[in-house]
Amino acid sequence: MRSLTPAVGALLIAVAIVAIAEPVNVAVTDLQAEGIDASSARVISDRLRTELFATGAFTVVERGQMDQILKEQGFQQSGCTSDECAVEVGQILGVKYMIAGSIGKVGQLYALSARMIDVGTSTITQTASVDCKCPLEKVLTGSTADIAKRLAAAVQGGTAQGGTEEAERVVEREAREGSKWWPPSRGQKVRLWVFGGLSAAALGAGILLDRQVADRVEEAEAVKADYLAYVEKTRTNNRYPEFKAAYEQAYQDAKTSATSRNVAYGAAGAFAVGLTLSFFF
Hints:
Structural class: alpha/beta
Shape: rod-shaped
Number of domains: 2
CATH superfamily of the largest domain: ABC-type transport auxiliary lipoprotein component
CATH class of the largest domain: Alpha Beta
Strand content: 5-15%
Radius of gyration: 37 Å
CATH topology of the largest domain: Rossmann fold
Order of helices and strands: HEEHEHHEEEHHHH
Helix content: 55-70%
């Protein structure tokens, strides 16, 4: 008999490990919608079911199957929002836990919360909530996964993938990413510096060229004034070809500088547009 003891002990340990690893059977009621439309809340509820199953800690009753069983039992789900009602649903479905919760919006903040109710004892065994100042799409793709990981960690003794600490890090990241405009991301900062620098450089070049245009026009007018003074003094027009060439050259230089100035201002405007768009992408 003593020789069998180690084998029996090993068998008991193996059974215990399997029992611990056994997924918990749960069902999820549709989240109560507060400040968002019912169809969005329904979609988020379905994603929560998917994320709970993905943790490996739960087997989840599929929505259609749940509806069919409750319909066969003559149970009306409309208005079933209390924990007592959730327990009743869980007893009909034969699950260990019911998961209920809500999704609401206050200002720009979405609040997703869930509670896990022990059907046998009618007590809440675990709660989880995630606040996200972000688009509703981010709640669907991120917050539901965080809730699922937290609940999984609770039933697996904190060993679920991601765990509470990871979920909190994701929540913090979501908060930082909640606004696409500010504070800017690393990529946005690079684009801000690039477009901002180019826009400033082009604007500065335009201002310098604008001054150059004015100088060339002043030069042309000075040539004209000098020539008129010469004619008045000498009463001759023998330097007209010389004057005409100098005058036309000064104005040609002014036109060239004006063209360059316009190009610089146009580039500054284009880079300014790029600077604005960099906040959105």
